[in-house]
Write a structure and sequence with these properties.
Aspartate Aminotransferase, domain 2, alpha/beta, globular, Aspartate Aminotransferase, domain 1, four-stranded antiparallel β-sheet, seven-stranded mixed β-sheet, 14 helices
Amino acid sequence: MPIDLRSDTVTLPTPEMRQAMFEAEVGDDVYGEDPTVNRLEAMAAQRMGKEAAVLVASGTMGNLVSGLTHCQRGDEAIIGSKSHMLMYEVASLAAFGGVQMRPIANDERGMIDPDQVEAAMRPVNIHQPRTAMVAVENTHNRCSGGVLDSEDVGALAEAAHRHGAKFHIDGARIFNAAVALGIPPSELARPADTITFCLSKGLSCPVGSVVCGSKETIEGVRRHRKMVGGGMRQAGVIAAAGIIALDTMVDRLAEDHENAKRLALGLATLPGIHLNATAIQTNIVIFAVKDRSAESFVEALQSRGVLAGVAERGKVRLVTHYGVTAEDVDQALNAVEAVARGQARGRE
């Protein structure tokens, strides 16, 4: 079997999750009658320090229905220039909500400058869209899993709220951020009007994400979930895995972070590979390759039994996760070294 480092979405459910899914008590969730879904939503809200939560099919759906709840057609949302919402969600908020996306440059760890957010806020003017939402990603996918702390998110929320805009956190990997900082996720979620998190990434569930917020806001989110076709019926078979994940899979994320650091430190010693190993905080390692395309590098790795992804032009992404051991990391490093040194010999 290859060592699959393409993403933490490739995680498989644990045996305990599979058993819980098999035995799940279910009902019709659209009627609010699935007890397992209700339990998961209550747990999620409590973990994020919010009044309510709603289970959705994916993080992309969670971001979409949050944006639809906060924004009206013709509004504008301020987001990061490298954000998942801008790069990987098929312009869904623009397509379904008629919402214009206004990107602000992300720094190396995924932060957007609050002063630039302030400057981008639209004045009240019939010629301009209303700035209805500011969204930030934590951890940041395209910024090597960079972490924003409570001061960072607080400053962005303050800038948004001062101008009457809502503040949304795409917290697909918010538990990774919390574990890296050694704080509860509720501290990072506190200033957010909505926050999403994924069950299907590092928490290893087969499917699902959760949106958390106030009761009133989540009522709107639930309505928009229905609107985009996300009303699920006996969804307890999904939620059961999420309950196990919240109970058993959060603390172990630290293992993924250690493996990512081990990987990054090894990569930094290899020829033709460029990254700041000390900046790796969580489970995503992105490195630049010299004198060849990232696609050809990934293809060469695959031939040596390691699956990797292309982050962007000239950059390769490796993600540690449940099921990847320290021994797997060492084997992956051997494969990367063989590819890198082979390329270096080819230039001699």
